[in-house]
């Protein structure tokens, strides 16, 4: 009987272990497949598009010829880009040095001809609040937040002479107001409008910060879904809202990556969907030109962490859109890449079922059935042992 009990315990342990591993794969796989993809995309006065794939900065000319503008370095990430009136491109690098266990960051500028200079040379101790987000007077803006502790979210301003002061925000929350009486929650993208105001995505809201520090909410509940939306696996882990741009007439475009759509928000706060994308792509960056064209950086991602892009799409003022380029598919997608993409999408569909709120119930039911079947299988083995005696 002792050996039979040990066998049964081992069987129970093995079955429960497999079940728990399956549940863990469903519940914790998602964070590992999403590592903050790039949102950086800008367009110069001649219609040339510059965008980041997280490491490499690409250039797409008016004839749709794709070339490398700034070569990438493995482990060195460029999430956002900015452009000035002289078509100079700005970016911020961030990388991790395993030997010193420190983060290295810098701020760089590249001319249209490709000449690189550093506004902040690579360092482990960068100047506070010196970023690529710059207003008309040369002040730069920086969000200081901790989304894990949720204690405070503050927008700091740095003057050209290096003075850094809190500009808006204080304790974590959501409240309109001026200066430190206002509250922010989890801030994503920031962008200046032609009106001189700073716009930002905050949780599920679009908010505006005027240059006197007054914070107002333009629109909220931007993550509300419809039957037409196709949410992705990582939605909700880092926030659904990604890239942001504001047109010359005050219309904001927000990349709602979590729901695979591009939102258009009027100055009065009216929200509609300007674009929906199909798996594996989702909009993550966006840039509006003075002529009213909107360029969208779409990231392709399928399980288990297979990339299928990025690609660039152009939306015309008349509502039509066209895909301009897909990185890695200039000469057609390889059979292996296409097969991997289809397999990844199939796995995504299965896991998405178990990840949405309603399906978690089915996941619990499935786990219960697995336990019941495991116990029944063990009892069946015990019955056979007893009848064989």
Q: What does this molecule look like?
A:
The protein is 21% helix and 37% strand. It has 3 helices and 25 strands. It has helices at 2-32, 335-355, 357-387, and strands at 41-43, 49-52, 57-60, 66-70, 77-83, 89-97, 102-110, 116-123, 140-145, 153-158, 164-168, 177-178, 187-192, 198-202, 205-209, 214-219, 241-246, 252-256, 261-265, 271-276, 281-288, 294-302, 306-307, 311-315, 321-326. It has a 5-stranded antiparallel β-sheet with strand order 12-16-15-14-13, with no helix packed on it. Strands 21, 22, 23, 24 and 25 form a 5-stranded antiparallel β-sheet that branches. A 4-stranded antiparallel β-sheet has the order 1-2-3-4, with no helix packed on it. The longest helix has 31 residues, at 2-32. Mean pLDDT is 83; it is low at 15-34 and 233-238.
Descriptors for this entry?
25 strands; 37% strand; five-stranded antiparallel β-sheet; 389 residues; globular; 3 helices; 21% helix; single chain; alpha+beta
Strand content: 35-45%
The helix/strand series, from N terminus to C terminus, equals: HEEEEEEEEEEEEEEEEEEEEEEEEEHH
Poorly predicted spans: 15-34, 233-238
Give the CA-CA distance, first to last residue. 12 Å
> In which order are the strands of the major sheet placed?
12-16-15-14-13
Topology:
Elements: H1 2-32, E1 41-43, E2 49-52, E3 57-60, E4 66-70, E5 77-83, E6 89-97, E7 102-110, E8 116-123, E9 140-145, E10 153-158, E11 164-168, E12 177-178, E13 187-192, E14 198-202, E15 205-209, E16 214-219, E17 241-246, E18 252-256, E19 261-265, E20 271-276, E21 281-288, E22 294-302, E23 306-307, E24 311-315, E25 321-326, H2 335-355, H3 357-387
Antiparallel strand pairs: 1-2, 2-3, 3-4, 5-6, 6-7, 7-8, 9-10, 10-11, 12-16, 13-14, 14-15, 15-16, 17-18, 18-19, 19-20, 21-22, 22-23, 22-24, 24-25
